[in-house]
Amino acid sequence: MVAGFTVFEIVLRYGGVSDYDRNRPSWNPPERFREIDRRINEKNREFSMSNQFGFNDRDRTKKKPEGIRYRIAVLGDSFIWGDGVPYDVIWSHKLEKLITAKRPDVEVLSWGKCGWSTKDELNFLKEYGIAFAPDLLIVGWVSNDPDVGAFPQKDLNLSLPFAPLHLLFPDTANALQARTESILSKSLFKGYGYSSWQDRLYTQENLALYDVVLAEFAQFCREKSLPVLFVLTPNNYAEYHGELFGKVKPFFGKNKIRHLDLFPAVCEKLKGRPFKELTANPANGHPGDPVTTVYADEVFKFVTKDPKISRLFQAHIKPSAK
Questions:
Q1: Which of 57, 176, 226, 315 has the most CB atoms lying inside 10 A of its own CB?
Q2: Which segments of 129-211 are extended strands (E)?
Q3: Helix, strand, or coil here: 320?
Q4: How many helices (H) and strands (E) does the chain have?
């Protein structure tokens, strides 16, 4: 048995077993990859401590700095905080570079916290964000944003039974634990696990509750005369992202919320590339550099070319008198 575990440990440690190419991979990465992820996020956390809200962005003042005529705020969750990626790979920072290269009198703020939902983002906007008086709000929308707290996420955690094995064969223990939890969540403990929880977010019952949140979001932005654009950002080109987006887009339309679905663009630009090339890092399934580049490029094109938004953009930004 020890010999078998040793062989399995070697195979896992060097990435010989994975299901990265599944729509929803469940493979647990080797410890050497997890360490890469830990180092990246530790650096992100250290930098975010300098921000008054814990955002992975330099701290900003409520008043626009001298020379800034237009302010864009990008509001979101871990995609905007940058879970698993270096600072410059975060798509809102890429967008900032694209815009300021053309217009240095524009400021782009990144407001993102891991785990935030649309409801959390609205609460921040009401309590703190609106005081920064953005001229345009871009909301980075992801597939778990319809969480309104009605269905708490339930996860199996079998780390204790596998703890002794983890001491000698950490990658083997992680893989067996993940596989066991996956099997049990589909049989004895139905409803447990991330995928089951996310599926419940798209039931009629929960989407009706989410509709209320979107209506409140839209109403608040109208009251504050704040133009808002929701940008739907898929992790990759897996079809289920498009299916989930299709279920929620009617609610954006119903509430007259401008939205940009980036699933078609991600498919066009990246389809055919292995999913593992599109992740934040080998141990983190958040979108990586190729995907965040598509996000930034597409949003930049939309903001600068869309008739309604670009008109607002240009109205605030006029060439300085010589």
A1: 57
A2: 136-141
A3: coil
A4: 13, 7
Q: How far apart are the C-alpha atoms of 195 and 153, rounded to whole Å?
A: 10
Residues with Cβ within 8 Å of residue 99, at least 6 apart in sequence: 72, 106, 108, 300, 303, 304
In this structure, is the dihedral angle defined by the CA atoms of residues 243, 248, 254 and 257, taken in order, positive or negative? negative
Q: Which is the CATH superfamily of the domain at 65-153+193-316?
A: SGNH hydrolase (3.40.50.1110)
Cα separation, 206 vs 98, whole angstroms: 37
Adjacent-strand bridge partners of 75: 111, 139
Instruction: Give yes or no for residue 321 having a pLDDT over 50.
Output: no
pLDDT score at 320: 46
List pLDDT tens digits, range 278-292.
Answer: 999 988 999 999 999
Residue 183: how many other CB atoms lie within 10 Å = 12
* Tally of CA atoms within 13 A in the half-sphere of 218 that contains its CB: 16
Task: Report the relative pairing of strands 70-76 and 284-287 from DSSP bridges.
Answer: unpaired
Pair 71, 318: CB distance under 8 Å: no
Pairing of strands 106-112, 70-76: parallel
- φ, ψ at 19 (rounded to 5°): -125, 40
DSSP characters over 141-154: E-TTTT--SSS---
CA distance 203 to 26: 23
> Domain locations in the chain?
1-49+159-189, 65-153+193-316
Full-model pTM: 0.88
Helix or strand (DSSP H, E) at 297: helix 289-305
pLDDT digits (tens, 9 = 90+) for 151-210: 888 777 778 887 887 777 777 777 776 777 777 777 776 777 888 899 999 999 999 999
Which residue type is seen at 56?
N
Tell me the residue type at 39.
R
